[in-house]
Structure to design on (216 residues):
């Protein structure tokens, strides 16, 4: 959980249709955690939410964030194709209105 | 470097004015690495760049990414105010046209 693999970081921000709906939030957290627990490829698996108080320069409008690291771009591709990932998308994609994904390879 | 603290993740994406300028890139990497090496508060310190080939749903338009974790929101605030951070901003802020910052607290 705490190991951060600097080869490949996959960062996702989710904006919910109903960000204040507690049932939606609980369902999403459960579904995402199940996926990450069952992924054969995800290393770091961090699920976050914005702090209540945010500085002006910070975009605190998202509902959830996800940071997952991998040993390689190939491992990240395998994670995209994993059955647990597809289950998560099926279970949860109706909850969000927008997603932004950023992939990064470590420079060192 | 590899320790990921799930309490607070600070994620920054930088879009350069001249993303193909190798001198700008080298100066930025050196300046940012110096800051992170001298920070008393940053835990994980990951500097990334987009993979060459990206999937359609991924925003690969940024020049550099930064992922830094902290033991608390208070530690992140102290990092904002550190002298090495101010030096980094002074040295490097002319290089970027746009920055997006997302802060996240771990849900668990």
């Amino acid at each position: 959980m705490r190991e951060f693999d600097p080869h490949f970081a996959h960062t996702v921000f989710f904006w919910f249709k109903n960000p204040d709906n507690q049932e939606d939030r609980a369902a999403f957290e459960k579904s995402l955690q199940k996926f990450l627990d069952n992924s054969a490829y995800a290393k770091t698996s961090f699920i976050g939410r914005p702090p209540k108080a945010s500085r002006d320069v910070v975009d605190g409008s998202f509902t959830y964030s996800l940071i997952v690291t991998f040993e390689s771009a190939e491992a990240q591709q395998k994670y995209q194709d994993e059955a647990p990932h597809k289950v998560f998308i099926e279970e949860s994609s109706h909850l969000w209105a927008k997603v932004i994904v950023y992939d990064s390879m470590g420079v060192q």
In short: Chain A has a mean pLDDT of 92. The radius of gyration of chain A is 14 Å. Residues 46 and 106 of chain A are 18 Å apart (CA to CA). The interface with chain B takes residues 1-6, 8-9, 11, 13, 29, 44, 46-51, 54-55, 57-60, 62, 64-65, 67, 69, 73, 80, 99-108 of chain A (CB under 8 Å).
